[in-house]
Design brief:
The structure holds 2 protein chains of 2 kinds. By secondary structure, chain A is mainly beta. Chain A has no helices and 11 strands. Chain B has no helices and 12 strands. The chains are: A mainly beta, B mainly beta.
């Protein structure tokens, strides 16, 4: 499978616990995005990497959230001290650099987080 | 900054009738525009994209969209709806390099037999 892979697919955690999600982008895609989607809403931008550099962070990304992309390959999104409001689907996407026409993002299946 | 407004949260059509899902965008730059579809419990799938080439863009499954700069619109159409088209549809805008991708709130398409 050469698509975007996210792990785990589902995570149930108790309030206050830390969680970490992993995203493996399509090979050679130099951009990687994280989005959050709550029920009935469109995906909301969280952060974006160009290779290993984190270029933009949304105001939605409080200091409890941190994302990394060491070596410009896979990425992790960590949420510390989870709150019930963090319950959502966390989506990862990857794309090629937009100098040409390859600007569309390919999405993974997402990680559904439930904080109880 | 970019943003999109999907004008209808829910559209219901009968099978075999035309589909129109409306999207207006706002962009400080020459935008790239996309339509994605999300079926229940499935990932987001790209339907079509506009990146400053032809203004009428054809996508998968018979969908197409027309970029109208004067109206800042990028409406999605299909001549004849199929039951399998029932899903959530998202209009997305980014700058021409694909930066700053912003999603609309989505339009839920229901197809009646």
């Amino acid at each position: 499978d050469t698509g975007v892979s996210q792990d785990p697919r589902h995570k149930i955690t108790k309030r206050g616990q830390n969680v970490t999600f992993r995203c493996d982008p399509i090979s050679e895609h130099n951009r990687l995005y994280w989005y959050r989607q709550t029920l009935g809403q469109g995906p909301e931008f969280l952060t974006y990497f160009q290779n290993e550099a984190q270029l933009e962070k949304s105001r939605l990304l409080s200091d409890r959230f941190s994302a990394e992309r060491p070596k410009g390959s896979f990425s992790t999104l960590e949420i510390q001290r989870t709150e019930q409001g963090d319950s959502a689907m966390y989506l990862c996407a990857s794309s090629l650099d937009g100098r040409g026409v390859n600007t569309e993002a390919f999405f993974g299946q997402g990680t559904r987080l439930t904080v109880v | 900054a970019q943003s999109v407004t999907q004008l209808d949260s829910h559209v219901s059509v009968s099978e075999g009738t035309p589909v129109l899902l409306r999207c207006n965008y706002s962009s400080s730059y020459s935008p790239s525009l996309f339509w994605y579809v999300q079926h229940p419990n499935k990932g987001l799938q790209l339907l079509l994209k506009y990146t400053s080439a032809a203004t009428l863009v054809k996508g998968i499954n018979g969908f197409e969209a027309e970029f109208k700069k004067s109206e800042t619109s990028f409406h999605l159409t299909k001549p004849s709806a199929h039951m399998s088209d029932a899903a959530e549809y998202f209009c997305v805008v980014s700058d021409w390099r694909g930066n700053d991708m912003r999603f609309g709130a989505g339009t839920r398409l229901t197809v009646k037999p």
